[in-house]
């Protein structure tokens, strides 16, 4: 297993992150997944990853905590020896109309969805620069492109990730590190379980919600089959944003 590539997927215990971890494991990646607190989901994901014949380990830490991210990156490097692919995926929503949005809900979403990418990418690119290879995928959203009433905090964080992606792609291209973002539409996970899916589906040209695997396949494509793609925002939304 020593020569396998290594992927670190934040928020890899459930939903989209879990699907990304599984898809990369199917391609032979050893996998580090992070999670916030859902031990049961993390253990199940690790069990499923190991059943695919790869090395896998979970790391419990808050991606909104800079020191915790630095420590976790160190631990992953100690355990796996390198990080080839980083998927900045962990995220939360704290929805509400802007007029009533508390500073607490603004900061929680910006820290968890945007600052986390800085905290996590910073220690990881040091090792990618040394090995002269790396692929970073930032999980943005269609609302980072088009905005959404009730999600000023979330849209700002997701739009921020797009600017971050493009700037980093320009800075790190010469080091053979590619940086891309994915903008998922409505994907069926715990995050979207309370939405009125019937109404939403009417507006989606492909007439269905996305599955976590739809995003995971795009992550795998970016990691494995896209050596000349960097700085892009790939919409995976059933045609919702055209
Ligand atoms: P999800 O099912 O709610 O899973 C969220 C994951 O992030 C879990 O693994 C969770 O860990 C982890 N997490 C949350 N807060 C964290 C923190 N502070 N520190 C570390 N880990 C944390 O969400 P999802 O739907 O898969 O979404 C994944 C990403 O895709 C998010 O960035 C989201 O904004 C984005 N996205 C989702 C959709 C959609 O329709 N679902 C659309 C566009 C973009 P625990 O299991 O321990 O809680």
Topology readout:
Layout: E1 6-9, H1 15-26, E2 30-35, H2 39-51, E3 56-60, H3 66-80, E4 85-88, H4 103-131, E5 134-139, H5 143-146, H6 152-172, E6 177-184, H7 197-202, H8 212-224, E7 233-236
Parallel strand pairs: 1-2, 1-4, 2-3, 4-5, 5-6, 6-7
Helix pairs in contact: 1-8, 3-4, 4-6
The protein binds NADP nicotinamide-adenine-dinucleotide phosphate.
Please tell me what the overall shape is: globular
The spatial strand order of the largest sheet comes to: 3-2-1-4-5-6-7
Supply the number of helical segments.
8
- End-to-end separation in angstroms reads 42 Å
What fold name stands as the CATH topology? Rossmann fold
Strand content: 15-25%
Oligomer: single chain
Radius of gyration: 17 Å
The structural class is: alpha/beta
Chain-averaged pLDDT: 97
| Main sheet attributes: strand count, strand direction, barrel closure | 7 strands, parallel
Succession of helices and strands = EHEHEHEHEHHEHHE
| Total tally of structural domains | 1
Low-confidence stretches: none
CATH class: Alpha Beta
CATH superfamily: NAD(P)-binding Rossmann-like Domain
Number of beta-strand segments: 7
Helicity range: 40-55%
Are any ligands bound, and if so which? NADP nicotinamide-adenine-dinucleotide phosphate
């Amino acid at each position: 297993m020593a020569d396998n590539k290594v992927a670190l997927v934040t928020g890899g215990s459930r939903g989209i992150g879990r699907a990304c971890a599984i898809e990369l494991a199917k391609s032979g990646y050893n996998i580090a997944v992070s999670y916030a607190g859902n031990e049961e989901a993390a253990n199940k994901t690790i069990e499923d990853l190991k059943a695919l014949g790869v090395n896998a380990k979970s790391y419990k830490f808050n991606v909104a905590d800079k020191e915790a991210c630095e420590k976790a990156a160190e631990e992953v490097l100690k355990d796996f020896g390198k990080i080839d692919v980083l998927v900045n995926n962990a995220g939360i929503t704290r929805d509400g109309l802007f007029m009533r949005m508390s500073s607490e809900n603004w900061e929680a979403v910006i820290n968890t969805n945007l600052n986390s990418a800085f905290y996590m990418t910073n220690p990881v690119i040091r090792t990618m620069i040394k090995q002269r290879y790396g692929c970073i995928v930032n999980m943005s959203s269609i609302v980072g492109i088009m905005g959404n009433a009730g999600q000023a905090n979330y849209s700002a964080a997701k739009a921020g990730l797009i600017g971050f992606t493009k700037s980093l792609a320009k800075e790190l291209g010469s080091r053979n590190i590619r940086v891309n973002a994915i903008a998922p539409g409505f994907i069926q996970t715990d995050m979207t379980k309370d939405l009125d899916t019937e109404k939403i589906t009417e507006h989606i040209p492909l007439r269905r919600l996305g599955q976590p695997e739809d995003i995971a396949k795009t992550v795998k494509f970016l990691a494995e089959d896209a050596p000349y793609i960097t700085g892009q925002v790939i919409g995976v939304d059933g045609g919702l944003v055209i």
